[in-house]
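Hello forum,

I keep getting stuck at the same step: I have a sequence, I want structure tokens, and every attempt I make locally crashes halfway through. Rather than fight my setup again tonight, could one of you with a working pipeline run this one for me? It's a single chain of 238 residues.
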Amino acid sequence: MAHVPSIDEVACQLIGREQEPPRTRQIALDIKQAIKDDVGETLRCSIGMAPNRYLAKIASDMQKPDGLIGLLPSQLPRALTQLELRDLPGVGARTEQMLNRKGITTMPQLLALDREGMHKLWNSVWGDRLYHWLRGHATGDDGAPIAAEMQKSLGHSHVLGPDHRNREGSWAVAHKLLHKAAMRLRMEKMCAGSMSLTIRYQLRREEAERKSKVKHHQSGITHDGWAWRHVSPHARTR
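Reply #2:
Ran it on my machine without issues. Output:
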């Protein structure tokens, strides 16, 4: 079973004896050799092997551009202690600042939290899931191990360059992102029930604080949201 999150990333779920560490490593080496034979030495890939998709993504980033890292259940979570908080998928600059404000500045501090502590840290079920993911489990809303669930949404984003920071340029980029999302929908054989467009702005802290008393985007700029939803009794995911 394979899942394609983006144009340069694929996640594969191994089954049966493929999950035995020596066999998993050989499969990874075969993939690397196939790319070299079929495409050439200039194209390389980094492969991460782990008990769940979240950890596999982390492992694939631990040794680039031509890495091969495996994280065994017996190594978790201590194998993650040398990482930075920003190495975790889903933890960007804003999330890192939130964690820092709550007293979490290192991975050992984060990993020392129990499940309840992780839930309080994020104030959502994301904390429960992350607690289990970092320990090699798959998890549902209640933290119990579950099979990989069907993807419920997809999206694309793009940071506008200086030449596109105008009405025509931003429209062109939005049009391109829409086509990319539609292409992925067709590849996954899925239908869209709703669509939304989000614009984020980057301001200096002083500007954001000055605008913070009005209805605003998280950056501080006054804005209106936009979304479209279509409900049909025949709409379904295939």
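Residues 208 and 220 are 4 Å apart (CA to CA). If your local run keeps crashing, start a new thread with the error log.
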